[in-house]
Design goal:
Elements (H helix, E strand, L loop, with lengths): L10 E2 L8 E3 L6 H13 L4 E4 L5 H12 L3 E5 L8 E5 L7 E4 L4 H11 L3 E7 L10 H9 L3 E3 L5 E6 L5 E5 L6 H10 L6 E5 L7 H13 L4 E5 L2 E4 L8 E3 L4 H14 L2 E5 L12 H7 L3 E5 L2 E5 L8 E3 L7 H9 L5 E4 L11 H11 L3 E4 L4 E4 L6 E3 L5 H13 L3 E3 L12 H10 L21
Parallel strand pairs: 2-15, 3-14, 6-7, 10-11, 18-19, 22-23
Antiparallel strand pairs: 1-23, 3-5, 4-5, 7-9, 8-9, 11-13, 12-13, 15-17, 16-17, 19-21, 20-21
Helix pairs in contact: 1-2, 1-3, 1-6, 3-5, 4-5, 5-6, 7-11, 9-11
Length: about 450
């Protein structure tokens, strides 16, 4: 693509002229970091989060909790380049105005915390966030006796210092975060909490399992023995001292570099047992012809000469869809990605966005009721759009490895989960070493207790 065809701020995705070989140490999981932050905010004593993810979404969570009276400060940790977070619970108190950005975890996990505060807590976020589903979670709070004004961003929770709790039924088929957000605060409700899901299957159920596991880490009594029903006993939340696992969903893009170039990529520290949905990439890339090896040292993926297409249900691991779709567009045969209708309500309508962008560079993509049918074709250079969606940006980077001339309009949007993605990506393609440390928090003292 000529310079004339680019706009200011465009990022030329690196092309790999040879197989990518490298080792990439990744920062912590966004999903775990934000869950730990909420629990630490509700705990009785200080907590320490080791190797937390520092990204736009986690900073938004930290700031939101800070505005509710929680202290969050950098302290030295094992990695001199990435301090730990010391979380000092306080409140929650109001009134406050909170910015959710485009972070689903903030807009869905923090309202139950705000309901425990005294005062009006106003929530808003990016323009695109105002279209994300919120109704079921906010109605569940109303059913529990909380005064909530609005059904989507912007909305206001009028905290009264306590929530009676009890049993609530909701349809969480649009997002598992509705269940997780309620459960995280449930132990602090007067009568505890029972959540019953009534609707189509919940997407991304590993995230609910993750929530249950971190609750138990904090000493909360949770019963998840019945399908679509979770019970949290009322009681205290214990302080935490935890090391955050690497973000396995973000790792998928780096491992895809091996898949589309016939290379070899290692991610150290890959957990032997995890509730992260991103762990599903191991089976997916195995089915697409990769050699996938998990050892005590980490995960290694060695790519085939060319990936194979596949027919796969991604309902529980929907966040992997953009990267899997990018690999599928470069495969030797068509693919069917199923069970992902709920992706229409993510940062953007990911099904429509993927069909449009993959079509731009020559693939044929049909949008199905619950997924995508991808037919690879001769791919060509093109300018791709991120839609302010970090996973779409990562997919474009994967495509650029195998298609010269791919340009992305906004790589900075990956700051949602990895602010230094472009540097890490370029370093991997250039030489493969652990090139870029996570670095200290760019917000520093702004995360400390709000007045």
């Amino acid at each position: 693509m000529s310079q004339a065809g680019r706009a200011q701020g465009d990022w030329a995705a690196p092309y790999a002229a040879s197989p990518v070989q490298g080792r990439v140490a990744l920062p912590g999981s966004k999903s775990l970091t934000n869950r730990y932050l909420v629990l630490a905010a509700l705990a009785g004593e200080e907590s320490r989060l080791r190797r937390p993810l520092r990204s736009r979404d986690t900073h938004l969570m930290a700031r939101a909790l800070g505005h509710l009276g929680v202290g969050i400060a950098d302290i030295p940790g094992d990695d001199p380049e990435s301090p730990d977070w010391l979380v000092t619970p306080g409140g929650p108190t109001g009134p406050a105005r909170l910015d959710c950005g485009l972070a689903g975890t903030v807009m869905r996990f923090v309202p139950p915390v705000a309901a425990l505060a005294h005062g009006d807590i106003a929530f808003d976020g990016d323009a695109a966030a105002r279209g994300r589903p919120m109704g079921p979670g906010l109605q569940a709070l109303r059913d529990l006796g909380v005064d909530v004004e609005g059904n989507a961003l912007p909305f206001t929770v009028r905290g009264r210092g306590a929530v009676r709790g009890g049993e609530v039924t909701l349809d969480a088929s649009a997002s598992s975060q509705f269940v997780s957000g309620l459960l995280l605060s449930g132990a602090r409700f007067d009568r505890g909490l029972t959540v019953v899901h009534d609707g189509k299957p919940i997407p991304s159920t590993p995230h609910v399992s993750m929530t249950v596991e971190v609750l138990r880490d904090a000493g909360v009594d949770v019963d998840d023995s019945w399908p679509d029903r979770w019970h949290v006993e009322p009681g205290s939340v214990h302080s935490l001292d935890v090391q955050v696992e690497p973000d396995l969903s973000t790792a998928a893009a780096f491992l895809a570099a091996a898949m589309v170039t016939g290379g070899r990529v290692e991610v150290p520290g890959w957990p032997q047992h995890t509730t992260q949905a991103g762990d599903g990439i191991r089976d997916i890339f195995d089915a697409m012809g990769g050699e996938v090896t998990l050892s005590r040292d980490g995960l290694v993926v060695s790519g085939p000469d060319r990936p194979e297409g596949l027919d796969v249900d991604l309902h529980d691991v929907g966040e992997l869809t953009p990267v899997v779709a990018a690999v599928a567009a470069l495969a030797a045969s068509p693919s069917w990605l199923r069970g992902i209708a709920h992706l229409r309500g993510h940062e953007t309508d990911r099904l429509s966005a993927l069909a449009t962008e993959l079509g731009t560079i020559g693939a044929r993509v049909d949008v199905l009721d619950d997924g995508l049918h991808i037919v690879p074709g001769p791919l060509r250079a093109g300018r791709l759009h991120s839609y302010a969606d970090h996973r779409m940006a990562m997919a474009a980077a994967v495509l650029g490895l195998a298609v010269p001339g791919v340009v992305l309009d906004d790589v900075a949007t990956v700051g949602k989960t990895m602010p230094d993605f472009a540097q890490r990506w370029t370093a991997l393609i250039a030489g493969g070493a652990d090139a870029v440390p996570a670095g200290p928090s760019p917000v520093g003292a702004a995360l400390r207790r709000e007045p």
